[in-house]
Amino acid sequence: MFVQDVVLSEKDFRKISDLVYKHCGINLHAGKKELVRARLAKRLRNGNFKTFPEYMKHVMEDKTGEEFSVLIDSLSTNLTAFFREKQHFEFMHDSLLPRLMDRKRKDRNFKIRCWSAGCSSGEEPYSIAITLHEAVERQGRWDVKVLATDISTRVLQKAREGVYEQERVAPVPTLQKNKYLVLRQQDGQKVFEAGKILKETVIFKYLNLQKEWPIRVPVDFIFCRNVMIYFDKPTQQRLINRFWELLSPGGILFTGHSESLTGIEHRFDYIQPTIYMKA
Ligand SMILES: C[S@@+](CC[C@H](N)C(=O)[O-])C[C@H]1O[C@@H](n2cnc3c(N)ncnc32)[C@H](O)[C@@H]1O
Question: Catalytic residues, which ones?
Answer without folding.
Answer: 39, 150
